[in-house]
Amino acid sequence: MKNENLEQQFLDQVMDHQAIIHKVCGMYCDNEEDKKDLFQEILINLWKSYPSFRGDSTFTTWMYRVSLNLAFQRLRKTAKNMEQVMLPTTFDTMKSSGKEGLPNREKQQMYAAIEKLNEVEKAIVMLYLEEKGNEEIAKIIGISQNYVRVKMTRIRRKLKQIVEE
């Protein structure tokens, strides 16, 4: 009976927060087939590690961390070339209006900009756009809050340099 309860808890949590997995897959995969494969891989790994989830963080923080780690591993294995596109320099206006509020061209530029970043920078920007605070981003990524702020400053500078080139 205990196993059935554990399974139901897991399924409930995943159903409530599956959008996290979809966002990570969308951020780190170029085509639908890769997204589906990564989604399944993340689900399998979440299930395998769920019994050891101690609750030191929220379920969503843990879910982001597992999802991002798997996406990072997959990226290292495939190492694809990125497309060169003109990029926006600030995420603040995109964050406040949400991607739905952006014109299609700006959305494309935003995602093209994020594609140019390394895996950790992509994760930080994705979480920032999800309106996660520095504390939660730090927990998910596994770095200090101060380093999150430093990384965001560097990411903005990096994007500005890319745009100017």
UniProtKB/TrEMBL annotation:
Indicate whether Ribosomal protein appears among the record's keywords.
no
InterPro entries tied to this protein: RNA_pol_sigma-70-like, RNA_pol_sigma-70_dom, RNA_pol_sigma70_r2, RNA_pol_sigma70_r4_t2, RNA_pol_sigma_r2, RNA_pol_sigma_r3/r4-like, WH-like_DNA-bd_sf
What residues does the RNA polymerase sigma factor 70 region 4 type domain cover? 108-159
Keywords in alphabetical order: Sigma factor, Transcription, Transcription regulation
Domain called RNA polymerase sigma-70 region: residue spans: 14-79
Statement: the UniProt record of this protein carries the keyword tRNA-binding? no
Write down a Pfam family by its short name.
Answer: Sigma70_r2
Q: Which Gene3D superfamilies match?
A: 1.10.1740.10, Winged helix-like DNA-binding domain superfamily/Winged helix DNA-binding domain (1.10.10.10)
Sequence similarity: Belongs to the sigma-70 factor family. ECF subfamily.
Per its UniProt record, what PANTHER family does this chain match?
RNA POLYMERASE ECF-TYPE SIGMA FACTO, RNA POLYMERASE ECF-TYPE SIGMA FACTOR
Protein's name in the database: Sigma-70 family RNA polymerase sigma factor
* Source organism (scientific name): Rhodohalobacter sulfatireducens
